[in-house]
Automatic annotation (TrEMBL):
PANTHER family assigned to the protein according to its UniProt record, in alphabetical order: HTH GNTR-TYPE DOMAIN-CONTAINING PROTEIN, MANNOSYL-D-GLYCERATE TRANSPORT/METABOLISM SYSTEM REPRESSOR MNGR-RELATED
Source organism: Bifidobacterium moraviense
Keywords: DNA-binding, Transcription, Transcription regulation
Keyword Transcription regulation: yes
Matching Gene3D superfamilies: Chorismate lyase-like (3.40.1410.10), Winged helix-like DNA-binding domain superfamily/Winged helix DNA-binding domain (1.10.10.10)
InterPro entries: Bact_HTH_transcr_reg (IPR050679), Chorismate_lyase_/UTRA_dom_sf (IPR028978), Tscrpt_reg_HTH_GntR (IPR000524), UTRA (IPR011663), WH-like_DNA-bd_sf (IPR036388), WH_DNA-bd_sf (IPR036390)
MF terms (GO), sorted A to Z: DNA binding; DNA-binding transcription factor activity
Domain HTH gntR-type: 2-70
Name the record gives this protein: GntR family transcriptional regulator
BP-aspect Gene Ontology terms: negative regulation of DNA-templated transcription
Superkingdom in the source lineage: Bacteria
Length: 235
């Protein structure tokens, strides 16, 4: 799969998540996508294949490519990585910044971020809530090489939207590791739970379209309030 196909697939995923195709539940035709994005038919077909493999869409021969309906309720898709604000566009999403600091990468962080030791890295700790329910306690790192400026005001909103729209970053893909863990005292206090309560842990490594890692995060999810779903192909 080429970088252009990944980029187009990610763009279409964002449009799907925003509900742009909810009226017809159908993607534009190949010819329309070629015209909209100025890409080849090969690129369009590759991007659609990516979406179909992820279970986001399903092609029907002679009829077009249809969008899978989202599950209703407080569910977050684990097959996409646009952030909680994009997952719940019609809900009250609040990000409370608990820490924002520019740090120097030690050996452990440099290995995680695939950068040099002492490279400048933004560390952002946020409590994320939806409709006043705490959802996650997020610790994230962003390479200053790609994110030259951050403020508490910016971090209180959608960081991915800021990086995409204001900084012009071109997102590629995300690697996710999901496991169970236990809350430390600080995370438990912010989530309104008890120390050593169980937590859903998701570790994300986010890459640009050129394959360079720019963001890593460690997310502790509220075991009662957070729910996830994934759409998958049966082929």
């Amino acid at each position: 799969m080429t970088a252009k196909q990944r980029e187009l697939a990610a763009n279409l995923e964002r449009r799907i998540a925003a509900g742009e195709f909810s009226e017809t539940n159908k993607l534009p035709t190949e010819d329309q996508l070629i015209e909209q994005y100025g890409v080849s038919r090969y690129c369009v077909r590759g991007a659609i294949a990516v979406l179909a493999e992820a279970g986001e869409v399903f092609p029907v021969r002679g009829s077009g490519v249809f969008v899978r309906e989202d599950r209703e309720g407080m569910y977050m898709p684990i097959s996409t990585s646009y952030g909680i604000a994009a997952d719940f566009p019609d809900r009250k999403v609040v990000s409370k910044v608990r820490e924002l600091a520019l740090v120097r990468a030690d050996e452990k962080l440099a290995k995680r971020m695939r950068c040099d030791v002492d490279a400048p890295v933004w560390r952002v700790v946020r409590l994320r809530s939806v409709d006043d329910l705490p959802i996650s306690y997020e610790t994230a790192w962003y390479l200053k090489e790609y994110v030259p400026f951050l403020s508490e005001e910016i971090a209180s909103g959608s960081l991915y939207r800021y990086m995409r729209d204001d900084l012009g970053l071109r997102f590629g893909f995300t690697d996710k590791v999901i496991h169970m863990g236990w809350l430390n005292a600080e995370a438990a206090r912010h989530l309104g739970l008890e120390e050593n309560d169980p937590a859903i842990c998701i570790e994300d490594d986010a890459f640009l379209s050129n394959g360079r890692l720019f963001n890593a995060s460690y997310n502790l999810y509220h075991y009662r309030n957070a729910r996830f779903y994934s759409m998958a192909s049966m082929r």
